UniProtKB/TrEMBL annotation:
<dbReference type="GO" id="GO:0045259">
    <property type="term" value="C:proton-transporting ATP synthase complex"/>
</dbReference>
<keyword id="KW-1003">Cell membrane</keyword>
<keyword id="KW-0066">ATP synthesis</keyword>
<feature type="transmembrane region" description="Helical">
    <location>
        <begin position="201"/>
        <end position="223"/>
    </location>
</feature>
<dbReference type="InterPro" id="IPR045082">
    <property type="entry name" value="ATP_syn_F0_a_bact/chloroplast"/>
</dbReference>
<feature type="transmembrane region" description="Helical">
    <location>
        <begin position="229"/>
        <end position="254"/>
    </location>
</feature>
<feature type="transmembrane region" description="Helical">
    <location>
        <begin position="28"/>
        <end position="50"/>
    </location>
</feature>
<keyword id="KW-0378">Hydrolase</keyword>
<keyword id="KW-0406">Ion transport</keyword>
<keyword id="KW-0138">CF(0)</keyword>
<dbReference type="InterPro" id="IPR023011">
    <property type="entry name" value="ATP_synth_F0_asu_AS"/>
</dbReference>
<keyword id="KW-1133">Transmembrane helix</keyword>
<protein>
    <recommendedName>
        <fullName>ATP synthase subunit a</fullName>
    </recommendedName>
</protein>
<comment type="function">
    <text>Key component of the proton channel; it plays a direct role in the translocation of protons across the membrane.</text>
</comment>
<dbReference type="GO" id="GO:0016787">
    <property type="term" value="F:hydrolase activity"/>
</dbReference>
<dbReference type="GO" id="GO:0005886">
    <property type="term" value="C:plasma membrane"/>
</dbReference>
<dbReference type="InterPro" id="IPR000568">
    <property type="entry name" value="ATP_synth_F0_asu"/>
</dbReference>
Length: 262
């Protein structure tokens, strides 16, 4: 870690911006303070904005913010209606929360690289600060594990424990002799869902952040924003698609959990 005022090499600059602010012994119980802070901050921002709009909603001519919120709600609601085939009042609010929350965390990637870490280090003595929570593997994987827990819960609730076990043991080959093969196939497929769900979001956001850092490391501080503009324009599409994909896969997985084929 360089002292304040000491110039960083391109390599150390990249390493510095990819390092989290942590508390712990460096092992399993290490906590990434910055990822937790920005994920909670964006989540609270989402709740505050939507709650405020809901309280002030009018049946007359809506304001711009109310129009935006209504568009988001309608978009997510239509996506749920087209994809989810069960009956569950939780799915639409969950999908809306996931989409908006991930979008807000992803949008943090559009903030210039040194805009927050520089004052945090030089004014407040905070050595590291990663502002993109979804570029930290712990946050996407925590969200995907939450979705996985809901998948298991509703699979057992809708199909029963016996029905869920039969789905794993007797699919795709409905014969007792094929149970070991079916279990291997179905368990691997089941576990792959949360892993791929979380790693897809993390991989795309981490790669985008690395590109921004590389651009910033190769340019003087006063021109960083100018060099990042072309990539930022393209990256807006990426952050939107990643939030949408995570939401849609969540809906699909929970829809499958509600299907009682036995």
């Amino acid at each position: 870690m360089s002292a304040p005022g000491e110039a960083l090499t391109p390599s150390s600059y990249i390493t510095h911006h990819l390092t989290n602010l942590t508390v712990g012994d460096g092992g399993f119980w290490t906590v990434h303070i910055d990822s937790l802070f920005f994920s909670v901050m964006t989540g609270l921002a989402f709740l505050w904005v939507f709650h405020s709009v809901a309280k002030k909603a009018t049946s007359g001519v809506p304001g711009k913010l109310q129009c935006f919120v209504e568009i988001m709600v309608e978009f997510v609601d239509n996506s749920v209606k087209e994809t989810f085939h069960g009956r569950n009042k939780l799915i639409a609010p969950l999908a809306l929360t996931i989409f908006c929350w991930i979008m807000l965390m992803n949008i943090m990637d559009l903030i210039p690289i040194d805009f927050l870490p520089y004052p945090a280090q030089h004014w407040f003595g905070i050595p590291y600060l990663k502002v993109v929570a979804t570029a930290d593997v712990n946050i996407p994987m925590a969200m995907s594990l939450g979705v996985f827990a809901l998948m298991i819960y509703y699979s057992i609730k809708v199909k029963g424990l016996g029905g869920f076990a039969k789905e794993l043991a007797l699919h795709p080959f409905n014969h007792p002799i094929m149970i070991p093969f079916n279990l291997l196939l179905e368990v691997v497929s089941l576990l792959a869902k949360p892993i791929s769900l979380g790693m897809r979001l993390f991989g795309n956001m981490f790669a985008g952040e690395v590109v921004f850092i590389l651009i910033a490391a190769l340019m003087p501080w006063w021109a960083q924003w100018l060099g990042s503009v072309p990539w930022a324009i393209f990256h807006i599409l990426i952050i939107t698609i990643q939030a949408f994909v995570f939401m849609m896969l969540t809906i699909v997985y929970l829809s499958q959990a509600h299907e009682d084929n036995h």
